[in-house]
Amino acid sequence: MTDTELLSRVFGILDPGATQRYSLRRDGRLLLALPTTGESTTRALRLYQPQRRLARWMVAALHGLARVSWQGCLLSKLHVSGEPVALNPLLPGIEVGTCGVLLGSPEHRIRRAIASFRNAGQWEVAKISFGTDGARILKQEARVLKELQSLTTSAPSLLGLHHTADLTVLRMPYLTGAPISPGESDDAIRLLNEWITNDFELSASGFPEWEAIQSALCDFETGVRVLEEISTIQLKPVICHGDFARWNLLKQLNGGLIVLDWEWGHEMGMPGIDLVHYFLQDARLVERLKPQNAIRKTCSLLESPACKSYLQKTGWNGNPLLPIIACLAYKQGAGHQENAEILMVCLSLLNDAEEA
Description:
Number of strands: 14
Number of helices: 12
CATH class of the largest domain: Alpha Beta
């Protein structure tokens, strides 16, 4: 499915009446389809949280231009129209011309998009996925959001789940907040401590992540030995997000955090996965560190008093390389992220440390 075809289908269900839009491109491909009115443009721009400095400057400039309706000075016109298609259940209240769409990466196995729009006078966000696998993922996220409402205030509420024959839409309130800056971790660690919701312990092999961890580590000779070591560690189950990165967090005016994108979340998760992922994602994707340097930096951060306290509280009392290996192996085995190279480097570092 091309970007234009994807947009046509999204606009066909959410905003078929609008005829004029703007486009924002990155690396030659379409990234955002933006409405033409100032507030609608600003809302849609906030769906995109760039991490690179130049991209942040560009988006900030567009926000400024949108406030005076001059965003067309920097953006190209986009001509995409969609044939009207009704969702089930019906969603009739979207205001014409308010819908903006952020396209997911074309590298994703399942094509997806995120849209902002005004519905019955309120701003909302919708996640859109295609096909059977896309429906399964959004149904899972909807289930998790419902379960979490009684456990934490840091998850969005669910407004509705809609579908057509081959497309699924998950609706949530449009949430605002300040992004988390590089190097900030105090609020994130505080939230992870709040997500320790159980006093009892399980062996690592009893967690839902274990099958994926086992699948990834059994491919390595050292991994088999590490599996045996990790399998007997007693850990406290926690709320696990599964993609706990800065760009999925919004800081509220009261200081609390709202966490977005719960498609891999679950209630009885293995502790340490989110903490390690938080630091590793920055090291790998933003700082672009080589695998060994990314691991060493993450190890150093895990030795800080706040991180060390969290790891000890949840049962990780030994070498910080062990929760790093568990995190990398889980993401690799579950198919969330390609980690084979960095996992091999991490196992090698563990082996060297034990031989020293």
